[in-house]
Design a protein that fits this description.
single chain, alpha+beta, two-stranded parallel sheet, flat
């Protein structure tokens, strides 16, 4: 099967989905659990308010002979990790060419940039004091985590 081309940033179709306890209780609870586990909010009430008031943008895709599906727009930023839920066919950015069997240096840099965010900071906050006196240690840990993750990629 052919890889799936990601939508152009200026030309795509999307829908916004707002999660709620009443209409989407499973997804709502999973999102809430994720936010609390990542310590994005101090209280469950703050996290609930955020989930209830912030729609999630989903990009629409149609895989021929398979069907329609939607993916969170933020996930498309790393097409190397995005695959069809039907066939497992990978996505690719047409500006980078079709994917080959390995991961490109450019893709590795994009992954590194994406990893170098809130997620890594949450891990580091659990490992050491978030004070500025340990900033050098924090950066060393962050670099190590990213290097290890990139090392496991194909």
């Amino acid at each position: 099967m052919n890889p799936i081309k990601i939508n152009n940033a200026e030309d795509y179709e999307s829908i916004n989905v707002t999660l709620s306890r009443e209409k989407t209780p499973i997804a709502f609870q999973n999102k809430l659990d994720e936010l609390m586990e990542c310590k994005c909010f101090d209280t469950v009430e703050e996290a609930e308010k955020f989930v209830s008031e912030n729609p999630i943008e989903l990009e629409l895709y149609y895989e021929k002979n398979q069907g329609l599906f939607a993916i969170e727009s933020e996930s498309i930023e790393i097409p190397d990790f995005t695959h069809s839920p039907y066939s497992g066919v990978p996505f690719y950015d047409p500006d980078e060419g079709k994917p080959d069997d390995g991961i490109t240096d450019y893709a590795a840099e994009r992954i590194k940039a994406k990893l170098n965010t809130h997620f890594i900071d949450q891990i580091i906050n659990k490992a050491c004091d978030p004070s500025t006196s340990q900033q050098a240690k924090r950066e060393e840990i962050k670099d190590y985590i990213i290097k290890e993750i990139i090392g496991y990629l194909p």
